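hey so i finally got around to running the thing on that chain from the lab meeting. sorry it took forever, my laptop kept dying and i had to restart like 3 times. anyway pasting the input first so we r on the same page abt which one it is
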Amino acid sequence: MPMLTVQNLSELKVKVGEGQTLLKAIQAAGMDWMHACGGKGRCTTCRIIVVQGMEHLGPLTEGEKRYRSNHRLKDNERLTCQCTLENGDVTGKVPEQTKLPHMNYSG
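ok and heres what got predicted. didnt touch it at all, straight out
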């Protein structure tokens, strides 16, 4: 099963099921992750910085394309509520702007 590793959450490893978004996998693992619009792709608060493995993620959704075109989503970022992990593993980190105050982040 593909694996998501979140570097700045103490190398948290999350199994991502087929067709499951990264956000759903993170939530299923019992972790909190910022998502102001409720996972509908209407904001960018759930974004993740992809450090390694971008090629293993599914294609950009329409929402992600829209945010990329207006420069609200960088080339190395994806929305966890929209993207799936199709094969292989991916490593990412929580952006500084969307860290939750009650979580303990590393490095």
